[in-house]
Design goal:
Chain lengths: ~400, ~475
């Protein structure tokens, strides 16, 4: 397969998902890990600088309004895995002045956090990064997180529910639909100031043209937002929205709300099948992908070593430390950067726009991506050799949306 | 015998925000939203060895006569997000954010301040404000549900709950011990709070930063506000910038501390101040007059009058006399603004009296009653006045609000700060790394919390300039 790029002429996009010491639960115990520094600014600054050296489109930051847990649906009392986190939007913003090109995509909760706060936080990140913000809205799937807020209760998933993505999605369907409303409210707030609302007209004494700042009057099922935003329109107009999806309901969420969807196929055939499901959801929602493209990324959890067989041996060692075999919603890849390049280009040819790689151990698998995989893809003419734009929308080749309230001319 | 050491002057800076102290028409006035403006001002005051950089908050754009108010600078970022960015490009400067306790929940606010304290290496501060304003509430799920009386108890309980969350991780709970495989101590972050306003429990995500708790700031001046500051806060902002009133406020607030087992140095009193500095006193006075005039355009003069009169006065000539019609005391044309909520009829009568006595036009009157500049003069005059103010116990320092962004404090930092340093009342360099160090609070006991009704009593937006009657 070497040398082929997928859909002819379409660039391949690469993102990295940063989380803790990496995506293997025992990664924090590896020799190269810095487990005592996972909640420090310096640790993250180094990781993101490395990702930017690799010319990646963006990095994502995981987050939740509760401690990490080995169980999908409830907290645990384990002490042998990474626990503790910092707010992802603030972390991304901290990294903005320390980087110049890479997109910064924090995860936030859209079940408990006020939509208005979410919208101004992401807008501020876009200002702080001069157009490199993205946003990964996530619903709260743990009922225990609701008790941290005390404002509402959310469905309590059972052991049986969590065995099946479709079951989970069904049980949380209302939260997904509310999440879509939150994204819609945020997008309206981002549009609530026209690009040219600030006029500084000394003659009339007006700082802004009030006809270019708009109430959004958003009325959702469970909440309403009057607007306008307190934050003027941002460099990207609307920062790209990114979501992870494993089932029909989240595909529909992505079709309604996202600019980039992360999916989790486990092979070539599965990739085609999931892309068909996403396309169907797009059709169902009536989205016009010519004006509002939806970029599709596949997630892969990766262990990379130059030496054949080394990555698989490393996984075995990590599993032994963890006392359990690694499981993931995403496909787990062990191999060399060259083998991963083969796989990515093959999947790209099925129609995926790009990939979000989850490094199993940091910094090892991140540097293997930036210094092994990326040069390999570049050699094959399949990945950028320098950044060609300064914004995340630019990297993703997504058009900058016109403010919906702005009058033409 | 060594002389009594002179009191140190604590300095903070506020980015001019959504108010009428910013001369946006000044050609030097740059973007109020570009990150470069924030970075430039923060780095300037860090060069001047200021204690902290402060951002006010306003969660809804002001409206006047049913339209977005268009005469003042408008448009601001989310505070903690922008301060987290500034933490990356400063190394010592404290970073203070106003965050409303009405439209937020303790878990999230505690988490975000713990994050800022971590990212900044111990430089976070929280100005706790509340609102019961239904107008602002229209932007939130919560809406404007809170009765005015309840917002005080809610704010106090909010702060106490946040403290419980910060304390939910003990020193050493984060083990990260690869050899034994223990990452965190069992039960780290566990909390339960069952109170009148908050009934929450579970696990908190974020081990606190170097300060443990961010520095707590309070900005109310009522009796309840002062008491709350004495029991709960480490800095209190005030609007008293006349030295006699400031001294009596200072004495009163400091006197209250003993009741809570705290010493006078455990709470710093920092009034907001405007500084106009020029080569000579005469030039500074002329510049100050020019600023006052620039701040009140003819349109602004009419809008201020309408806010007091509660009726449309657009037919009046800003260069003519005040209206002889009576105010509509119940009509509020200006929303999302703290000024003129009460006693507008009386204000109108007083204004009319001043205008008649001194033969002032509408615009001249609004300029006259508008904010006076706190310190005006040559660098030497200003440095002497600031030092005198602090040594005579009118304040522990000041929050300086420049007239334009981002270069508005350049002159102060370049010309006044060296004189204060020469006097030995302002640090030559930082001696500590955390904001608590800068404020001299490192050895102070943490406020015990919950001393009674709390929080800001007049405004959600401490940068609003009160126009005195």
């Amino acid at each position: 397969m070497t040398g082929t790029t997928g859909a002819p002429g379409t660039p391949l996009h690469l993102a990295v998902a940063l989380d803790g010491a990496g995506w293997h639960p025992a990664a924090w115990r590896e020799a190269g890990a810095r487990p005592g520094e996972l909640l420090t600014a310096a640790y993250w600054a180094e990781l993101v600088a490395e990702a930017e050296r690799g010319l990646l489109d963006f990095v994502t930051f995981e987050d939740a309004l509760g401690l990490q847990s080995a169980a999908f649906h409830q907290p645990d009392d384990r002490t042998d895995q990474v626990r503790g986190s910092v707010d992802a939007v603030l972390l991304a913003s901290h990294l903005a002045p320390l980087t110049t090109r890479i997109g910064l995509v924090p995860t936030t909760n859209v079940t408990h956090t006020e939509p208005f706060h979410l919208a101004i936080g992401i807008a501020t990140l876009d200002h702080a990064s001069k157009g490199r913000a993205g946003w990964r809205p996530q619903i709260s799937s743990r009922a225990a997180d609701a008790a941290h807020f005390g404002r509402r209760t959310t469905p309590r998933l059972t052991e049986e529910d969590v065995t099946d993505s479709e079951l989970i999605a069904k049980r949380l369907r209302e939260l997904f639909s509310e999440g879509a409303e939150v994204v819609e409210a945020a997008r309206r707030l981002w549009d609530s100031w026209d690009d040219d609302a600030e006029i500084r007209d000394a003659a009339t004494g007006r700082f802004i043209d009030r006809d270019k700042v708009h109430h959004i009057d958003f009325q959702g099922t469970n909440f309403s937002v009057k607007g306008p935003s307190i934050t003027p329109r941002t460099p990207q107009g609307q920062p790209p929205v990114v979501s992870l999806a494993h089932a029909s309901t989240p595909y529909e969420f992505a079709a309604l709300s996202s600019d980039v969807v992360h999916v989790t196929p486990h092979d070539r055939a599965g990739t085609g099948a999931i892309l068909a499901q996403v396309a169907e959801a797009v059709k169902r929602t009536g989205r016009d992908v010519t004006s509002r493209p939806l970029r599709t990324f596949a997630d892969l959890l990766v262990l990379l070593d130059e030496k054949p067989g080394a990555a698989a041996r490393r996984l075995a060692r990590l599993d032994e430390t963890a006392g359990a075999e690694l499981t993931s919603d995403a496909e787990i890849f062990t191999g060399t950067p060259g083998e991963l390049a083969d796989l990515l280009l093959d999947r790209h040819s099925v129609g995926l726009d790009g990939f979000r790689l989850r490094p199993a151990a940091l910094p090892h698998d991140l540097t293997a991506i930036t210094r092994g995989l990326v040069p390999e893809l570049q050699r094959r003419g399949a990945f950028r050799t320098e950044y060609e734009s300064t914004t995340l929308r630019g990297h993703l080749r997504l058009p900058r949306p016109v403010g919906r309230y702005a009058k033409a001319g | 015998m060594p002389a009594t050491p002179r009191k140190q002057v604590h300095l903070a800076a506020q980015l001019p925000g959504i108010h009428n102290v910013t001369v946006w028409s000044d050609p030097r006035s740059g973007s109020q939203i570009s990150i470069d403006s924030f970075i430039r001002l923060a780095q300037t005051v860090e060069r001047g060895k200021f204690d902290f950089f402060f951002l006010a908050e306003g969660l809804r754009l002001r409206e006047h006569k049913g339209h977005v108010y268009d005469l003042d600078i408008a448009g601001r970022p989310e505070n903690l997000t922008v301060l987290s960015a500034l933490a990356a490009v400063t190394t010592r400067l404290g970073l203070a954010a106003t965050v409303n306790a009405t439209f937020n929940e303790p878990y999230e606010v505690a988490r975000r301040f713990a994050t800022l304290d971590r990212l900044s290496g111990g430089r976070a501060a929280w100005n706790v404000v509340t609102s019961y304003d239904a107008f602002t509430g229209e932007n939130f799920r919560r809406g404007g549900f809170l009765p005015e009386a309840d917002r005080y108890t809610r704010a106090a309980e909010f702060l106490n709950t946040a403290r419980e969350l910060w304390d939910s991780w003990a020193e050493g709970d984060l083990r990260a011990d690869a050899a034994t495989g223990e990452f965190a101590r069992a039960g780290a972050g566990r909390f339960a709070h069952h109170g009148q306003h908050f009934d929450i429990s579970g696990r908190f995500t974020t081990p606190p930063g170097p300060q443990g708790h961010p520095v707590i700031i309070q900005s109310g001046e009522s009796d309840a506000g002062r008491e709350f500051a004495a029991s709960d806060a480490e800095v209190i902002f005030s609007k008293h910038n006349r030295i006699d009133a400031a001294r009596s406020f200072y004495r009163d607030v400091k006197r209250r501390l003993a009741r809570y087992g705290r010493s006078p140095d455990d709470l710093l009193i920092l009034p907001t101040a405007n500084v106009v500095v020029a080569d000579t006193d005469g030039e500074a006075a002329a510049y100050a007059a020019e600023i006052s005039r620039e701040l009140v355009s003819p349109q602004t003069a009419i809008a201020h009058l309408e806010a007091v009169w509660g009726r449309d006065l657009s037919a009046y000539d800003p260069d003519g006399p005040l209206p002889d019609i009576e105010p509509e005391d119940d009509a509020h044309l200006l929303k999302g603004h703290s000024v003129f909520r009460k006693g507008r009829g009386e204000t109108a009568r007083q204004w009319r009296k001043i205008a008649e006595k001194r033969n002032l036009s509408i615009r001249e009157l609004v300029i006259e009653v508008g904010g006076r500049h706190t310190f005006v003069g040559s660098p030497r005059t200003v440095a002497d006045a600031i030092d005198h103010y602090v040594q005579s116990e009118g304040a522990d320092g000041f929050v300086l609000v420049p007239h334009f962004t981002p270069g508005g404090l350049d002159d102060f930092v370049d010309r006044v700060v060296p004189l204060l340093q020469e006097k030995g009342v302002h640090r030559d360099d930082y001696t500590g790394t955390t904001l608590r160090d800068h404020l001299g609070l490192s050895g102070a006991p943490r406020p015990a919390g919950w001393g009674g009704p709390t929080a800001r009593d007049e405004s959600d937006d401490p940068d609003e300039k009160e126009i005195p009657a």
